[in-house]
UniProtKB/TrEMBL annotation, chain A:
Single GO term (MF): zinc ion binding
Main location: nucleus
Name of the molecule in the record: General transcription and DNA repair factor IIH subunit TFB4
InterPro entries xref list: TFIIH_Tfb4/GTF2H3 (IPR004600), vWFA_dom_sf (IPR036465)
Source organism: Mycena belliarum
Cell compartment(s), UniProt: Nucleus
Family to which the UniProt record says this protein belongs: Belongs to the TFB4 family.
A biological-process GO annotation: nucleotide-excision repair
Skewed-composition ranges (Polar residues): 310-322
Pfam family, one: Tfb4
TrEMBL record, chain B:
Annotated ranges, domain Transcription factor Tfb2 C-terminal: 398-464
Protein family: Belongs to the TFB2 family.
UniProt entry keywords in alphabetical sequence: DNA damage, DNA repair, Nucleus, Transcription, Transcription regulation
Entry protein name: RNA polymerase II transcription factor B subunit 2
Role played: Component of the general transcription and DNA repair factor IIH (TFIIH) core complex which is involved in general and transcription-coupled nucleotide excision repair (NER) of damaged DNA.
GO cellular component, one term: transcription factor TFIIH holo complex
Cell compartment(s), UniProt: Nucleus
Source organism per UniProt: Mycena belliarum
From TrEMBL, chain C:
The organism's taxonomic lineage, starting at the top: Eukaryota, Fungi, Dikarya, Basidiomycota, Agaricomycotina
Organism: Mycena belliarum
Occurrences of domain C2H2-type (ranges): 418-438
Pfam families per the UniProt record, alphabetical: C1_4, Ssl1
SMART domains: C1_4 (SM01047), VWA (SM00327)
Protein name: General transcription and DNA repair factor IIH
Amino acid sequence: MDDDSKGSHLSVVLDLSPTHWELSSRDAPENTYPLTLATFLSQLLAFLNSHIACRHENTLAVFGAFPGKSIMLYSSSNAVLDSLSTDVNANSYPPFNIVDSTVVQRIMTELDSLEEHQEEAPTALVGALVKALCYVNRITLPTSSNSKTQSNGFHPGVLPDPRILILSVSPDLSTSYIPIMNAIFSAQKLKATIDVCQIYGPNTVFLQQAAHLTGGSYIFLERRDALLQYLIMSFLPPPSIRKTLSVPTQEQVDFRAACFCHKKIIDIGFVCSVCLSIFCQPLPVCTTCRTKFPMKTLQRLNAARPLLATGNSTRPSQSRMSTAGGPVTNNGVGGAPAAPHGGGQIANGNTNGARCVFHLG
Amino acid sequence: MPSISLTAPTVLSSSPHSLLPFLQSQSQTTLTRLYQRPSACLSIFRLLAPLQQQIVMNLLWLESAIASSTMAAWVVREGKKHYDTALSTLFRLHILSTSPIKLALNPTFKTSFRQALTGGGTTGSFGAPAPNDDKHPPMGIDGLDGYALERWETILHYMVSSGTGQNSMRPSKDVLYLLQRSGLMASPHGSLQITSAGFQFLLHSPHAQLWDLLLQYLRMAEERGMDLVEVLSFLFMLSTMELGREYSTEGMNGTQAAALTQKAMLNDLRDYGLLWQRKPSSRRFYPTRLATTLTSSSPPLPTSTGPSSGPKEGFIVLETNYRVYAYTDNPLQTAVLNLFVALKYRFPNLVVGSITRDSVKKALSNGISAEQIISYLMAHAHPQMRKNNPLLPVTVQDQIRLWELEKNRLKSQEGYLYTAFTSPADYELVLNYAKQLDVVLWENAAKRCFFGSLDGHANIKGFIERRTGGNA
Amino acid sequence: MPRRDGEYMGVDSDSDISVGGERKGKGKDKTDKRKKDKAKTKATEAESDHLQAAYTWEASYTRSWDTVREDEAGSLQGAVEDWMARGRRRRLLAPAAPVRRTIIRHLVLLLDLSTSMLDRDMRPTRFDLTLQYAREFIVEWFDQNPLGQIGIVGMRAGIGERVGEMSGNPQDVLKAIADRHKLEPTGEPSLQNSIELAKSSMSHLPTHSSREILIIFGSLTTCDPHNIHETLDACVATKIRVSVVALAAEMKICRELCDKTGGQFGVAMNEGHFKDLLFELIPPPAQRALSRAAGAGATNPAADLMMMGFPTRLPDASPPSLCVCHSQLRSDGFLCPRCLAKVCDVPTDCNICDLMIVSSPHLARSYHHLFPVKPYSAVLSMADASTSSGCHGCARVFPLVALAAVSEGMSAVGRYRCPDCRGEFCSDCDVFVHDVVHCCPGCGQ
């Protein structure tokens, strides 16, 4: 098998909702383990560097989901172009330097440019995810336009075992149900694995399904001080060696869907037999395909509705992470001060952002 | 793993990088000194197998040691064997400190590797970039590639042509010495001739060839009074450098001995094409692609100097009728093909030939094996060929193997021929005796002779003497 | 033998030496003659091969140079782009409004298992090829019709034979035709018997689901006990749509079956065409146009609203319990959201409360039919382009110079713009977004 010799591709999708990161960084009693965006970024960068460190051929792309928009923060194939213009020093590996500074710099620029009223908007996680898929599609499809990047040591013919890692802090956005589902199916077609780490907030039903359907892991982060250790143990191993490890799997997968009419997440719904649209209550006409439903079905279903009253209540959060080799993660993570060299400030206006984080520590 | 990208894919995953056994044979102090440099840690980490890497990563950010049983629980039962071998390799490399119950990284390695990942520190082990040079325009990546390719192909071309008697450019004396020491070439009659190991070497991927030579270089290093740690860390530093950037020799730290070693290495590696200097005395240098891809498995060199840009994955088309079409105008590739293909035509970008019994026999007699020919053809197959399954026509593969078997058709055995028996009875008698001893290799009753093996001779001779003596 | 159809033959055997017209005539003669004395096929074929060099495998190579044309610079780029342009135009023509499609489908696959399937005009034999394509068809069909069910009926030795029961699980269906030795062709086929069998296996289905029969027919005869036209009328009455892919030639009764029931009829000319014909039947058929013509408000009698539950999947490691469907002790399974009974597999009807349990991803697979992404418009010139330097999706850098000549619908600067978010995409992403993801990266929906 060639998995060992060839690198693997990792696309990371970051949920950068200022509101939720603000909530996440509040101290006890609101959070047992507060996690600020700065600490998160410093741990994330260590993780990204670890991925690049594993193989010379490993490729990386980072996408950011900001309120209302998504952008690509870094990609290894585009980075080569401007790498020579950046500063290097003798104490660090140039590729790490480029990743760290580009990612931090772009995040800061974007966050600074956000205006007050925009911060509340839901993040464009779907947009970022679809961009990640487009990128995976681009690197798995060798096309004529890729030939230029070839000379930079990037081989489009090689399929680098694509993975997408979503680091989410926001709760489910039920309007994005259909796009997320579409994204999941295209990931399946691309044979890409979607891993999910829910860093803050409640479990998300949709992302759980994404991980389950693409064969990835879903982790609900409990000890947020040990983020890096979680990331490394669960998401660093490429798919080729995951079968020899007990990577966390999901206990229960919630297969609920969002209805088309009120975007509510529901247990039991009413489905149009023509277009399969889901509704949370019986309707006389399908809003999607405008099919009229027979009167007697409506009466029958309306009669059955009271039974559903309990069914529609929110389901208790049932999913949590488990490892088959349980003690490892618990002990290992618990005992580990996971932050590399402590996290300093990020927003100090220095262009050499990422590096500063570590030096200050 | 990079070094073995040529051999059959099934062998690929299991065999470790060729440098690792060498490192394992080094003492703990040598390795610990080496691990003081973040760049060396990073490069060695890259050479490890994925599972080994994962183990290192799991332990990297832990402050305290972790019980081995805890760690082992993280591997599923089927992966146990795999996991144990991974651990033992890490122990032998002294990346894990030796303790049966608790697992922890070698503290030196841990500190340096953390530093490599997060940056910082003052070791300067990733090479000091030279300040901008106003006098000279910077060297482009294409120029560097061209230089590396030219140097490397000079060496290979010299090896190929030494057998044919053609004259080609001679590489420097040091290179020749290295080739001779590594047994790739030998001088039985005064002039250097390629050996059978050398022929095999030619069919390896450039990456494997490079490491073959470098390993030999490392073995020689100590004889030449060079500090092995310095040599290794210089190599690793090169491998973490950035292609197309100029580095200065000034920043290199260390004692005077270290400085001398580095100076010598700069010269040597320039000969191999790993780095480029404007002039030998220059205080700055560019690493070439050969150097920067040392720890990767990507083909280190663009294989074609032809008009098409970028490295070509493969160029050989092999048909079921044994014809070979090689889309190349590279003399070296042509020469290598000439080792086992009867070339017919040459066009500006195409060489046509066919695999014949004679051409393969010639290769076999040079010590090249059928498997090597097949794996070479596979590794350099044209992208169009890669659509076929199996990649090469089965008939051709089988035939090449059969030709190899043909070589082993004759088996020689020493012995004695017994002839001139006076009567059929005598012949029968001796033959029967010999048959009882099970030493008859061949017999012919009509000619009254048989052939007995060497170890039976004394007995048969004694028997005949006894018989004739008895008769007389 | 349609594969040797005169015209087809004429075009394809057109070698570079001869002139098309004359050769065409010859081809036709040959074919006609061959039709007459089928017994001597082998000799004739050898002769005709000698004359026309028309082995089947040659067909795919003939005049391949006509399909691509180099531009002045000798590059094939233009030809490739042309292909893509064709795809784009097709997409632009497609209606933007949601199309109503039948998604809950029931299909009976009727396989001809008569001796005529042993004919070797398709490689390796018609029978083996049919099995192979049937497997691919089933996989792809379930991918696009996740809530559908397939049953398999074989026709051999004059009777219809139930090979596989109606099932919604692709694995079950595939298993039914996995063993070719159990399906070894014998005897004559009977269309009537097997259609009756297929019809009876679909008789219990509710009105809102579509009923289809797909016949792969290699024979030129059918051996029926009664009047097959009565069966045909019964199919029309029960709204069963019959489609036929014939491997030999067109038969009047087959054509009539399809025409009257609204199915599709096709004769496979070669292996590739066979596959095309088969795979054309995979996408869910659009609802019959009549209700639309009568106005959007008209009630479609087949439409219905169904109550469905979305279950929770239990992990493999959960404590084992009895399932309600097989009464077996197992740890994995799905919980009915209404009565919390445990069932083994979805989609199914809950054995306790009779709720239809489906996994929502199953439903979601078909949503891209409902909300297609609006087609992107080509950015025609540099002046029109926005300031972004790379594709909004994959960040590939756009070309800086415009191509001199492009075909209609293609962008000279390689940019395609989403009408909603105004994001600009490269042509690869354009295709990927519309054909695979069905979600614009800029708009996020």
